[in-house]
Amino acid sequence: MSAKDATPAALELSTIQPIPASERHGRARDLFTIWFGSNIMLLTVVTGALAVTVFKLPLLPALVALIAGNLFGAVFMALHSAQGPQLGVPQMVQTRGQFGSYGSLLVVALVVIMYLGFFASNLVMGGQALHSRYPMFGTHLAIVLVGAISVVATVFGYRLIHAYTRLMSYLSGAVLLLCFAWILGVHGLPADVWQRNTFSTAGFLGTLSVAALWQLAYAPYVSDYSRYMPANTGSRAAFWSSYWGCCLGSILPMVLGVLVGLSADGDVIAGLIELTGPASTLVVAVFSVGIAATNAMNLYCGTLSTITVGQTLVPRWAAGALSRAVTALVLFGMALALALLGQDDFMLNYTNFILLLLYVLVPWTAINLVDYYLVAHGNYDVPSFFRRDGGIYGYFNWTAVGCYLLGVLVQVPFMATELYTGVVAKAIGGADIAWIVGLAVISPVYYLASRRRGLRALGGLKGSVR
Under DSSP, is residue 410 helix (H, G, I), strand (E, B) or coil? Predict the structure, then answer.
């Protein structure tokens, strides 16, 4: 079946293989809808509410921190998205070009854990919301239902996920506007909403970090959804479509979360149901379906990353649609267990999870972007990605591996979480600036180290020619 004749319901046959020119399709605006539609969901609302429920910020500073964090973090997300049309492979496969075939396994394994964490978090959110508004569904059953919809989309693959999120862009977007209209125009905000909570630098930086992470967390898989685009899509068009789709799709529900968090006591989902009154029946149903769309993306990319690990160890394995289906079911079972076991302490577990995730993602995104845009200038030997010995990239690129480990270690004194607070973070009142330090240190260090490595390699080549 040709790309032109394929329908969203057509089963995707490829997994991590390079996408040939004959199968390329789509337009840059498709990247807007996939990131806009996939972000309008309950977990985004809950993440926005952290600004006022966990970090205890007043209304205006909460909004400023959330907007600034998203606008900044989305720059990195969109730069990764622009790589997809040029290389035609999943993001984690491309990571072999920076870390080597075996060197990339550490990063890919961490990314799989990330997907499972977000998948499980979304299952808990969707299940609890459905149970709250539709008591006939037990929480366990509701969690399974949300997950089942995600698995179906993952099995069918790329086209169905794009079509799913395109539909949710309109449906979830309309319901989001309904929420704002109902809360602001019908229910109204508390009279003292501007006086609630007290500003703190630690709370502001914590909120900024969470918002930036929300965008950075997409970096390891964002190009998975642009890799089928024609090579002439253009890096600029891919960048801006992804950037504004993800920014608007994230900021608007996070703002809703702030309003709910300040207006309702206790559980954010229960507060949303209370504030939207009769409209909550539609709100919960649509936002829960939206969670399933986003979870399909998490499971799809987690599956591709798991296949990447397998193909690295067994290069002759040509994984196809059946392999994707089986791998997706295994990962779904693992995430389902996490969701069912961790649902009682969800908010605490989720907050700690996303902050710890930030520390391991930051050095990877710095290395990947510096290598792609400043060192390799987008020119990679794609066939080498699929060789066990890494081809021209080898088993390990110790420059990248060393910089990655340094990037994690350099953040330790600046970390501020419930589990651990570094000495510098304590000295500045618990403010978390670790991810900023990680980006600022590793980006130039990796660039300079790569330049020196390249010059040494060039000098050795000249010497051998002589």
Answer: coil
| pLDDT tens digits for range 286-310 | 988 888 888 899 899 999 999 999 9
Q: Please state, as a whole number, how many other Cβ atoms lie within 10 Å of the Cβ of residue 289.
A: 19
Q: Which two tokens stand for residue 181?
A: 């209209």
Instruction: For residue 463, name the pLDDT band (cuts at 50, 70, 90).
Output: very low
- In single-letter form, the type of residue at position 143 comes to I
Q: Could you write out the DSSP letters of every residue in 145-199?
A: HHHHHHHHHHHH-HHHHHHHHHHHHHHHHHHHHHHHHIIIIII---TTTTTSS--
Distance between CA 272 and CA 132 in Å, rounded? 11
Where do the domains of the chain lie? 26-355
Q: How far apart are CA 132 and CA 332, in angstroms?
A: 23
Q: What are φ and ψ of residue 200, in 5° steps?
A: -145, 145
Residue 206 to residue 178: CA distance in whole angstroms: 29
Maximum Cα–Cα distance across the chain: 81
pLDDT band at 313 (very low <50, low <70, confident <90, very high): confident
Residue with tokens 């990353």: 305
**pLDDT for 45-77, tens place per residue?**
989 999 999 889 999 999 999 999 999 999 999
Q: Calculate ∠ Cα 384-387-391, nearest 5°.
A: 45
pLDDT over threshold 50, residue 462? no
Domain 26-355 -> CATH class: mainly alpha
> Residue 316's Cα: distance from chain center in Å?
30
Q: What residues pair up with 416 in beta bridges, in sequence order?
A: 421
Q: Does residue 394 sit in helix, strand or coil?
A: coil
Q: Angle between the 28-39 and 280-313 helix axes, to the nearest 10 degrees?
A: 120
Q: How far apart are CA 199 and CA 55, in angstroms?
A: 9
pTM for this model (two decimals): 0.88
**Token pair of 377 as six digits:** 């200038």
Residues recorded for the chain: 466
